[in-house]
């Protein structure tokens, strides 16, 4: 599976620019987004992904659609998104988030019929990452605000499931930060479990941009999710040491082996070595994925990488079964 | 004509200024091959002179060319260095993009890169010093795709060599302030990355007889700070305002004692900081008691290019007024 968003093709870039300028209608812009999503879904279906994403090409950042859909939060100035040359708008909470709209259910209804045979995956930001990268002007404690965010996301996820999502992915890149404590990790797990406890569809916890500390990872193994996705390609030695030391708990592993931030083709031999090492002694279902979202490389490369992910997975499936 | 830069709280800019009408079209014409590089630099003088006019009216002490020639801080240099190929569009925020260039061969400087605009700006600055500003080796490396060099150390030193050649020529031409922009450094605030960048900057700045400034912004500056204090530079120009001065206590904690380019203007906000607000923010630094006013330069967090021109100018005017008030008090 691909972890998340895709870059915008030229038509989408121009459509979003034109609608901001008032040069085209919202309807026309939405049609371009839908058409781009269809292409992106098709690329993943053709590559044999188990779950597919619509590419979320109209999301300015991972938080923005939720900020727009909730009361008591607004998007403020720009801040760098982890170690990328990419900036997100900082969500500013003035009170507990109160969903006035839903992000995924209408979206899923637009794209659902295009996702065959593999179903659509809905991706949401994890509550720990959300609260960590936001500004809290609510007067609530960090924990209370985080709980409010988790509750809002739980409703969002349930609606997405009801609308036909084939899986729900929760992105928690902030948990890979080397300064995250065990207490932070325990809080994150508690919040993730608020979201997943009501869901019946498969759930994925995705951690990327780096490898969590061993102490943090130990806590994360308590998360009630079906799949645990780790970024391997960014720091292979640390990732493989972590997996070698602690395994995956009760989760099915998803290994981030296709580098979503670089354009050169990933080396198959290296990917094979990582996968073999990570899955040594494990004989259950395992998946391969991208290190993160694709949206910091050009569109054409994202399609190439989608192909490579499918191709390498197929080759390894042949070799390892 | 000579200009006396104030000894306390000199005001300056980080570099870029909103594109003046016509500048973007001139860049496009050059990119389309409709005009030569010489013609390009001749035509871009008109926008530069408008920028300088704004700076002088605002009263900024140490100015720049407003980077009117530069569509982007990496792309501009990549277009002029051999070994680079033009990249495709990559998003930087919202629906804003840059063409992330690709390193496809051995990197080499074949012509001067930014000296011409600097020299022109100096000729119309009414004696005010003009910073010579260039994107640093770490940022050039990190914000380019690379399909040629197999080793990052080799790549960064290849870039450092080019930048050093350019800096040395700029100093030879009379530049008294050399600023190397390294915003990518704060994205990976780890000791090994700081060391890699530090070695490249040491090479760039060796023997440079000018004020050596490194600009870094956004990201986790507080994490990076302890690893860069031994860099061979006179001044760090850092972003403070956008991150609500989160960095201030760390200056004290780490015993910061170089000159500081103190970012007091949020370049991502359309709201113009008031004179009182900027003055208060200067006071916050001074009350820490770690730096003398002679070591504090007052500047925006980063380049002003994303702002409307009138907002950028209004911000600079208030910044300069606040610095003048601070000079009276400190």
Describe this entry's structure for a reader.
The complex is a heterodimer of chains A (321) and B (330). Chain A has eleven helices and nine strands. In chain A, the strands form two sheets. Chain A has a six-stranded parallel sheet. Chain A has a three-stranded mixed sheet with strand order 1-2-4. In chain A, helix 10 links the parallel strand 8 and strand 9. With 321 residues, chain A is of the alpha/beta class. Chain B has a single domain, classed as Alpha-Beta Barrel (TIM Barrel). Chain B has a six-stranded parallel sheet. Chain B is globular, with a radius of gyration of 19 Å. The model of chain B has no long low-confidence stretch (mean pLDDT 96). At the A-B interface, helix 1, strand 1, strand 2 and helix 11 of A face strand 2 of B.
Q: Which short descriptors sum up this protein?
A:
heterodimer; A: 321 residues; alpha/beta; TIM Barrel; six-stranded parallel sheet; 9 strands; 18% strand; globular; B: alpha/beta; 12 helices
**Low-pLDDT runs of chain A:** none
The CATH architecture designation of chain B is Alpha-Beta Barrel
Mind telling me which CATH architecture of chain A this is? Alpha-Beta Barrel
Report the principal-axis shape of chain B: globular
Calculate Rg of chain B over CA atoms: 19 Å
- What is the total tally of β strands of chain A? 9
**CATH topology label of chain A:** TIM Barrel
Query: How would the global form of chain A be characterised?
Result: globular
How many runs of DSSP E, i.e. beta strands of chain B?
11
